[in-house]
Amino acid sequence: MLINSQLVKDHFGQYYKIQISRDKSAPYAIKAEQFSNNIQAAQFINNLKAPISFWSKIYNSEALVVQPVKNQYQLINALAELFSIGKIKAFKMDATALSESSPEKRTVKDKNKNTHTFTSATSLLISKPREVKTFSDKTEAKKYLKELSPDRVELQNVAKELDLPVTDADDELAGLIADGLAAGTIVVIVDRYSAPPASASDSDTSLHEEKDASYGPESSAAIVATQTDEEIICELTKFTAKCSHNRSVDMTDDSAGIILLEVVASETYEKDFEKITATIKGNALCGEHVESSSSISPEPVSTKKSSASNIYTLSCDKFTSPLQNIWLPSVKPKSYKIYPNAHQTFSPSAIAIDVYPKIKWNGELSYSFGGKESKRADNKNEHKNTTSKYTGKLELEYDGEKRDLAADYNDSIDQILTKLNWITKKVDKVLDYFDGGASMTLTVGWPNIKITYATELKEDEGSRAVINDYKLTLGASPLIEIKGSVDFFPVLMKSLPATHGIYKVLEQVKKGIGNEKGIAHLEGEIKLELSVGSGLHVNFVSSGTNGQENNNNKVESKIDIQFQLEGSITAKGHAWVIKFEKSYKVGIKSGFVGKVIVDKDDEGFYWYSRFLFNGLVIYFTKYDKLEKEVSNSSRKSKKFGVIDSLTTQSTKEWVCIKPDADEEAPYETQRLEGQAELDASDKHYLIRF
Question: Where is this region: Disordered (predicted)?
Answer without folding.
Answer: 197-218
